């Protein structure tokens, strides 16, 4: 399912061992050459922060220089953003410069300073500190306004023209000065910004900006491009309702430099996730077959002939099948009614006997308008944070005749327990311990952000955790993948940035496997669309998914496509058997 947001729409180690390992890894990865000497000094409105690895200079709230210690590798653009520290509002605007605005900087200790931007209507703070244990330079923005409807506080800096940007956005994007794609965007975490970090490369060094927030606070990363400037803006976003909000803040962004390309700092973040999210314990109950999968068939119908055709070209026990049409109702109609057809039950029995692993399609939060259950949960439908409009698939003004489904907040235990019950109830007759839950990436901010004390991100996590409590051996797949959803998912469909209308060389050149690198050993990405044999975009799409690090994926319900294999399908099957993909143009680091 498309998930564009409608505009209306184990054994845990002892803590001291964890800390020792983390400090050791950080020292190896970063530029540190000796004991940490983290310090902050102030001269007028300038703040100088330095650790054993990284030196940064701030002019008021503007980051004007950042280099590795002992190297002349500048990561920051010479031109400052117009408003380095801003507050944003429900109408979409930033406040900009305030009336009678003043900027002051004050040392709080030898390792901390506070920058204050104060005007008649707003006051914005930037707390700059150093972390001696990690050698990070830490920046904590906050803001207060006389105006209501304050959405977020945003801290922005510009990148040096000779840098390259690697972002875990929509499964991995590289941004280079010489290519206009991807363009400007605001990427909400974790819906589009899949992990709370970005990495900047220059020469043989890299800079990572990340945070280690575990409160599931809404946040966003902004990309703005103009001439030779690429600006990054980091937002701390208020949960809805927004109208009465007048303050924002609470998220600390960490900056550090490393020797090597993006994989070096990404390894630090991947290791942090493994410890923080206790991923080894979450994998402990998974069946061994999950690690053996090398091929996916998506959007399948219950056609037994397809099983015979597939088994002739690839081992069934290494193949997963996403079964989209198996209910007595049409696709995307009458949720949460999940009754299998007799044909689907026969198909599942044959697939199981042959060794295939089939995941029937369910939906994460959609309830059909005409289903009786809607009346029980309608008060907990997602509502847009800026306009309070109800959201769904499709809801006005995007209403279509064939379906109209409301998006229900998964913080609501009534909904979570309903979905768990109907899913396991359907998987019984289908005799499967594997299911696909559509739209699990849809965790954006809402006007009704908190239900039972959980925002939409926490609600999704709670749903996954409760599945694991009920059936620890059950394997889940999902749509999209981020650092929260991947914790309980063995497989996840991967979207392509700006790929709804067309996929071409733009996406090929911009693809980078940072997300599959972050999820490595825990969750496998699979293809989502435009992989049907004969589609004009097949080759470009296959290349994007190869570069993204997704497992080889087919989309077809015609056995003839497999029996009389085209070069396109030969390419997919060869890669599934471990043969390298063909060479393509553009960077593929």
Your description of this structure?
With 589 residues, this protein is of the alpha+beta class. The chain has 13 helices and 30 strands. The strands form 5 sheets. Strands 6, 7, 8, 9, 11, 12, 14, 15, 18 and 19 form a 10-stranded antiparallel sheet that branches. Strands 29-28-27-26-22-21-20-30 form an 8-stranded parallel sheet. A 5-stranded antiparallel sheet has the order 5-10-17-16-13, with no helix packed on it. Helix 1 runs antiparallel to helix 2 (263-276). Mean pLDDT is 92; it is low at 2-29 and 583-588.
Layout of helices and strands:
Elements (H helix, E strand, L loop, with lengths): L14 H15 L9 E5 L2 E5 L3 E6 L2 E7 L16 E5 L12 E8 L2 E7 L3 E10 L4 E10 L4 E10 L4 E4 L5 E3 L9 E5 L7 E6 L2 E6 L8 E8 L2 E9 L9 E3 L3 E7 L3 H14 L2 H5 L11 E6 L3 H8 L7 E5 L18 H13 L2 E7 L2 E3 L5 H4 L14 E2 L11 E3 L5 H18 L3 E5 L17 H15 L4 E5 L11 E4 L10 H6 L3 H6 L4 E4 L10 H11 L4 E2 L4 H5 L3 H10 L13
Parallel strand pairs: 20-21, 20-30, 21-22, 22-26, 26-27, 27-28, 28-29
Antiparallel strand pairs: 1-2, 2-3, 3-4, 5-10, 6-7, 7-8, 8-9, 9-18, 9-19, 10-17, 11-12, 11-14, 13-16, 14-15, 15-19, 16-17, 23-25, 24-25
Helix pairs in contact: 1-2
């Amino acid at each position: 399912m498309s998930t564009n947001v409608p505009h209306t729409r184990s054994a845990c180690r002892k803590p001291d061992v964890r800390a020792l390992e983390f400090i050791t890894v950080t020292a190896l990865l970063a530029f540190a050459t000796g004991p940490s000497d983290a310090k902050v000094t102030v001269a007028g409105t300038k703040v100088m922060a330095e650790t054993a690895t990284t030196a940064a200079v701030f002019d008021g709230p503007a980051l004007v220089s950042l280099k590795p210690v002992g190297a002349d590798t500048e990561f920051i653009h010479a031109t400052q953003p117009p408003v380095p520290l801003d507050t944003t509002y429900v109408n979409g605007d930033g406040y900009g410069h305030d009336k009678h605005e003043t900027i002051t900087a004050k040392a709080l200790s030898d390792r901390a300073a506070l920058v204050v931007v104060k005007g008649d209507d707003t006051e914005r703070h930037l707390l700059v500190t150093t972390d001696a244990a990690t050698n990070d330079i830490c920046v904590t923005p906050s803001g207060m306004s006389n105006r209501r409807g304050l959405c977020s506080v945003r801290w922005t800096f510009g990148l040096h023209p000779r840098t390259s940007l690697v972002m875990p956005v929509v499964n991995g994007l590289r941004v280079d000065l010489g290519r206009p794609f991807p363009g400007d965007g605001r990427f909400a975490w974790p819906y589009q910004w899949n992990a709370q970090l970005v990495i900047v490369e220059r020469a043989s060094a890299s800079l990572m900006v990340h945070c280690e927030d575990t409160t599931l606070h809404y946040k966003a990363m902004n990309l703005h491009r103009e001439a030779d400037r690429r600006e990054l803006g980091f937002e701390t976003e208020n949960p809805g309702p927004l109208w009465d909000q007048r303050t924002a803040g609470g998220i600390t962004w960490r900056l550090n430099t490393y020797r090597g390309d993006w994989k070096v700092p990404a390894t630090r973040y991947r290791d942090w996730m493994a410890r923080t999210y206790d991923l080894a314990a979450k994998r402990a109950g998974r069946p061994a077959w999950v690690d053996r999968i090398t091929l996916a068939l998506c959007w399948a119908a219950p056609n037994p002939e397809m099983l015979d055709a597939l088994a002739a070209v690839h081992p069934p026990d290494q193949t997963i099948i996403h079964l989209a049409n198996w209910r007595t109702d049409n696709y995307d109609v009458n949720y949460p009614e999940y009754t299998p057809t007799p044909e689907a039950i026969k198909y599942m029995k044959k697939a199981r006997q042959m060794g295939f692993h089939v995941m029937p399609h369910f939906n994460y939060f959609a309830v059909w308008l005409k289903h009786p259950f809607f009346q029980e949960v309608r008060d907990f439908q997602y509502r847009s944070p800026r306009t309070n409009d109800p959201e769904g698939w499709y809801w006005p003004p995007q209403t279509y005749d064939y379906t109209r489904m409301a998006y229900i907040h998964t913080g609501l235990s009534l909904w979570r327990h309903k979905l768990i019950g109907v899913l396991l109830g359907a998987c019984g007759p289908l005799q499967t311990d594997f299911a696909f839950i559509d739209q699990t990436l849809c965790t954006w901010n809402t006007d009704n952000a908190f239900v039972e004390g959980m925002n939409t991100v926490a609600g999704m996590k709670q749903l996954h955790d409760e599945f694991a409590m009920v059936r620890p051996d059950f394997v889940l797949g999902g749509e999209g993948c981020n650092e929260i959803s991947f914790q309980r998912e063995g497989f996840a469909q991967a979207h392509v940035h700006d790929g709804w209308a067309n996929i071409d060389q733009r996406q090929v050149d911009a693809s980078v496997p940072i997300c599959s690198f972050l999820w490595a050993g825990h969750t496998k990405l699979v293809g989502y669309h435009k992989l049907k044999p004969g589609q004009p975009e097949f080759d470009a799409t296959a290349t994007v998914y190869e570069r993204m690090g997704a497992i080889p994926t087919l989309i077809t319900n015609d056995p003839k496509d497999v029996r009389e294999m085209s070069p396109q399908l030969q390419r997919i099957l060869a890669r599934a058997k471990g043969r390298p993909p063909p060479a393509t143009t553009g960077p593929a680091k």
